[in-house]
Predict the structure.
Amino acid sequence: MPIDQAGNGQAVLLVRPFDGVRAEDKTYDHLGIGYLSSYLESRGIRADVSDMVLGTESTTADVARRVSESAYRLVGISATSQLGFPEVVEVARAIRRDSPSTHICIGGHFPTVAHDKLLRDFDCFDSVARGEGEEPLHDLATRVLGGKELAGLHGVTYRHQDEVVVGPRADLIQDLDTLPFPKRQFMPPEYGGIRYATMVSSRGCQYRCSFCSVQAFYGCGWRARSADNIVAEMVELHQREGCDGFDFADDSFIPVGQEGSERIRQLCAAIKGSGLQDLTLIALLTAAQVNDEVIHQLREVGLKSALIGIESASAAVLRRFQKGATPEINERAIQVLHRHGIEINAGFIMFDPETTLEDIEANIAFLKRHASYLIFELLSRLSVYTGTPIYEELEAQGQLKGDYLNPDYEFADPKIAWLHAVSSGLMERWMGVVSDWTRGFKWGAGSLPAPFRRARRQKMFQYALEVFTELTDLVKSASELPSVDEAISRLSPGVNMGFEQLVNPIAEEDMNEIRNLVPSYRYAENIT
């Protein structure tokens, strides 16, 4: 269907706010907005994009001015992160102030699970497109642009006078091959001579982790594009944009059981048959689905790096998180990936409300076994997101602090609270430095060659782990602990000294010294 070009009043503006996106992630298109744009345009509705992350507009005032000057009647704002929701509100309020008659719709995981509360509490929003957004947003746009009533809309919660109306759940799109490829607004980024594009080959997840909002967002199930459809998009991106790197952002790249093995076999066969060569693939993997056969096939077609949700080496924590994995499964997955030469970025949650010292010790032992090559978040604390099972559990138990906008908790064990506060106070800024190097071959860190950068990064991980180990030992053995502030004050000089040895610029000829460097400063004895 041809797109209506009869003025911006008949177009939709989709906005990506700046909501705390890491600096090195700024160069990727927003795939969600890309799919919404292409879906709307395939049905004759022009979709313009305002991307504050990539710089189409850089301030909320710029976005509001664009809406006002172009007379958009419908604006959709993507709320990609609950933590970045204040920026979404700021953009919506600026648009509302300058264009009071414009309909403002928001979508994303957080708006989906808090749709009724958000419309109750924020008059800058007119509606929420819940869950998978293509069909709800298209139906909403048809009504708004046509000046029709919203009654009967599926997948949309909207305000009618003083009442919040919750429309029935929209059906999921079962055949993802029917979706047009996402509209990409910007040139894909290039790192290390490789041009990358993000892709999704499936939607949803078959697992039910207690901290995750994917099930609440989609409703249920897992659906995949066909191998031919995935590879057709890869070929198009290669031919049109020169992409040889593909970063798969699926919530679950490999489905459970034999279905997963067959899917990977088909995908790898399709890639080989496409003529694409020398690819670099990155994917999010689930430990239970990692085995030699699957990883060997993916390695043959270019898998170089994997993010794998380990979360914990403690069996008790994995049960609390409903991970569907065991420490043994996690261990095997890490060994398989390492054996095949895959760079491993492990999703890791060191602290949660019920963390015990035994959980911490299990994590330390696991990380020490793999610290020479594993990338991980040492001090990560479980974030509680509205609508997740763990949110509901903490709320029911009276352990939840804050409200649905900013849920939080306290640690059950005061010693764990001390360990988290002191280790974070000592190392958080250094962990930020380490994070600049956690993306391996894709992201640079100055002029240091990649092999040396990786070696230095791993030394920093190992040193941080030693600091954390000694603090854990201190918590176990000390009859009385100093205050958090006192501990940080006493320990900071020594910890900083160790990190500074590893952060200072290092010439290539000093690489042997890097490899042999073992931090020897003993700091815990200073506060016992």
